[in-house]
Design brief:
Elements: E1 10-12, E2 19-21, H1 34-44, H2 50-78, H3 84-113, H4 117-126, H5 131-142
Antiparallel strand pairs: 1-2
Helix pairs in contact: 2-3, 2-5, 3-4, 4-5
The structure holds zinc ion.
Zinc ion binds near residues 13, 15 and 27.
Amino acid sequence: MTSAPGAAPTRNCVSCGRAISWDANVCPYCGHDYRMAMAGPAAQKKESAMPVIGGILILLVSLGYLAGGAFVAVAGGSFFWFDMGVSGLAVVCGMVLLVLGLIVLLGGIFAIQRKHFGLALVAGIMAIPSLLGIIGLILVIVSKDEFR
Ligand SMILES: [Zn+2]
């Protein structure tokens, strides 16, 4: 900023480089509008669609976990009269998958909301068995700064 003592403070227009009034909304020389530039990026920070896309991918993986877990648990349960050992194991595996699915589901929702990066990260890591989960995890890590 270069201004003579007593004179109104000036700044150089980012568009044309000429000195304009410090609080000018529009450059009188080239018409560059500073109101848009101020309100736009400042108001909504830097938000990309990456956490949302990543979160949706992680959500899809969680649905796979939930569906798989439910299937294994129900299928295992239906074998109960046939072989209790196999049936019990399948039901436990199904339950574990369901719990995993719920945690991943929660993390995916957090990623979409750009909240709780740690939980979104854990969900992404747990979603790694699926290619969608790997992509989701990468998107979440890349957009770490957007999380609150
Ligand atoms: Zn200008």
